[in-house]
Amino acid sequence: MVRKAFKMKVFPDKTEEYIKRHTPIWKELEVVLKAHGVSNYNIFLEEETSFLFAFAEVASEEKWSEIANTDVCKKWWKYMSDLMETNDDNSPVSIELKQVFYLP
What we know:
- By secondary structure, this protein is of the alpha+beta class.
- The protein has helices at 15-21, 27-35, 61-67, 71-80; strands spanning 2-9, 38-46, 51-58, 95-96.
- It comes from Flavivirga amylovorans.
- One of its GO terms (molecular function) is L-rhamnose mutarotase activity.
């Protein structure tokens, strides 16, 4: 198992809509995430800065990377692109965070 942590940014005036669209996420996206070994996926919002902190446990880096190539993931990115900072392919601008401490 690999623990992934990363940060993204939602537009300050779009936080409520961001939360709404995740409550719940599409069932088909949930199925893809779980099928690719994702568990314990959390996203937290720092309200003052509109930064999102995400954490997930994944089966492997390879399976995690494969998710980006699925149709449902690409569709989700497009659906969310008006709410947050994105790259040219609509994927969220995401900065991976380095783990410096872990207490099992």
